[in-house]
Predict the structure.
Amino acid sequence: MKKVLLSGVKPTGRPHIGNYFGAMKQWVELQVSQPATDKFFMIADYHALNFIQNHEEMKQNILDVVLDYLAIGIDPTQSTIFKQSDVSAHPELAWIFDTITTMPYLMRAHAFKDAEAKSKEIGVGTFNYPMLMAADILLYDATTVPVGQDQKQHIEYARDTAEKFNRIFGDTFILPEPLIMKEVAVVPGTDGQKMSKSYGNTIPLFATDEEIKKAVMSIVTDSSGGIPKNVYEIHKLFRSQLELDRLYTEKAGKYKDLKEALIADISAFIKPLREKREQLAKDKESVLAILKAGGEKARVKANAKMEVVREKIGVKLY
Ligand code: TYM
């Protein structure tokens, strides 16, 4: 079985270091460690439409994510960078999946339950979110989906849906596996909860020095034995355990010094990424050309799979 990697980000705002360490960093590493594997890195704009319903903002966010991908080192000659809306097979397959899926099954999704617990009015797009994501993954015969822990259930939905379709219509889809790095499965935010745009506890991946300083200074410092846990947990992303333990023992109880050390480490890490991104942003045309070419490539693969799907379900008559 040919190995195929697929993953993506919703263009709902600036990515944070949780997105990067939890998922995107692995994508770049896999590019190096698995050169022969087909790799698809998607911009999930139709998923983002559940959150961003503004023409200018959506357009800008999409372009921003392409820049983010390129700046962290996704290489368009090795990986296909594309946006979901360039491949209409995604919503098409999602519809087909809707017809074999029950409402009680979708009501078990974490995102749905969270929205329900907050008594929010739940959009049909939010409800069906897992089916579109199943289509994203299954269309490309993806074997491996590198993500953070919060996406695990979505990949289980994709597996279940593939199994169900295969049972009804015959062997068609490959069952994908999540690839979740244990140490960074849930990167904590400045308040110790999971780092998330919706919690307002993020450190943006391409933050300016000022933003880094502000975010680190806002880290909640509850400590045990002089070690501020939330500072330490974020610091772990930037230094080896050995170096950190030495630093945190030496500076035990000195929260300001430890936060300053963290600011220096994050700034040193982000600076070259930010500079590369600024450079790339100067040539918008080339960036858009990469996205367009990626869409064309993705479309070829997805359309071929859709032909098989249409044949299986009995709608392909000629
Ligand atoms: P999104 O845009 O919310 O997040 C992108 C990636 O970042 C990971 N992540 C984290 N990892 C560790 N710690 C955190 N605090 C943290 N916050 C976010 C996410 O797990 C994710 O891997 N539904 C997806 C987008 C998507 C997709 C797909 C992904 C659409 N179709 C198909 C894979 C395959 C999402 O909303 O990710």
User: Anything to note?
Assistant: The two ends are 29 Å apart (CA to CA). Residues 6-10, 18-19, 22-23, 44, 47, 133, 136-137, 145, 147-148, 150-151, 154, 184, 186-187, 194-196 surround tryptophanyl-5'AMP (CB under 6 Å). The domain at 4-185+291-313 is CATH 3.40.50.620 (Rossmann fold).
